[in-house]
Amino acid sequence: MRILALTHGDNVGPGVFQDAVRAAGHELVERNVARDGVPDDAGDAAIVLGGAMHPDQEDRHPWLAPELRFLERELERGTPLLGVCLGAQLIASALGARVYPGPVKEIGWAPVSLSPAGLAGPLRALDGVPVLHWHGDTFDLPDGATLLASTAHTPHQAFEAGGHVLGLQFHPEVDPRHVEAWLIGHTGELAQAGIDLATLRADTARFGAAAASAGRALMSAWLDRIFPTGR
Description:
With 231 residues, the protein is α/β, with parallel strands linked by helices. Helix content is 35%, strand content 24%. The protein has a single domain (2-226), classed as Class I glutamine amidotransferase (GATase) domain (Rossmann fold, 3-Layer(aba) Sandwich). It is built from eight helices and ten strands. An eight-stranded mixed beta sheet has the order 2-1-3-4-10-9-8-6, with helices on both faces. Strands 5-7 form a two-stranded antiparallel sheet. The longest helix has 30 residues, at 197-226. The termini are close together.
């Protein structure tokens, strides 16, 4: 299967998800929407990744509106979609849900609380595993979607819709070796949010390997669900 990975910057790639995709024998095709524009189609499935921008910043990032229309079209086609952070927000918006600023900037390593549906699906790989959170926005649960995970600050951390659409506000795809690039690129944001870099670095060293393993397992389980016959 051909799986498209939509990225929105140089440091927000598919991370450990690409390991699981390739281990399953699928082709992963990356496309930087900010640089190359929206593709004509998503192939057999698409992973929509994060970015430093907000979904409503179409005046600053004119490719956001075409990407939203692309996702709406792929949802109508029934294409399997997995969104991470900005990607989850865009998918939620394409499903008609409201995206808006959350009560706090949630940045750091912490586990999510899984719902019964979350424990019964691909997210069970994350049970009790601290994952990286890095967002200021959140979204309402789309109509008909099932809530999979929450935190105290963000009740809607993950959802699924129709059995083939998965939205994740947090970052299970992150390769801990790449977190330092995020720290360097977002020094001002982190200082404004009062985030201690030493603590974030120490937590990355402490939790990163287990989170990466859980992220690979999550992606493998999602692929098994949407492509039950394998190739």
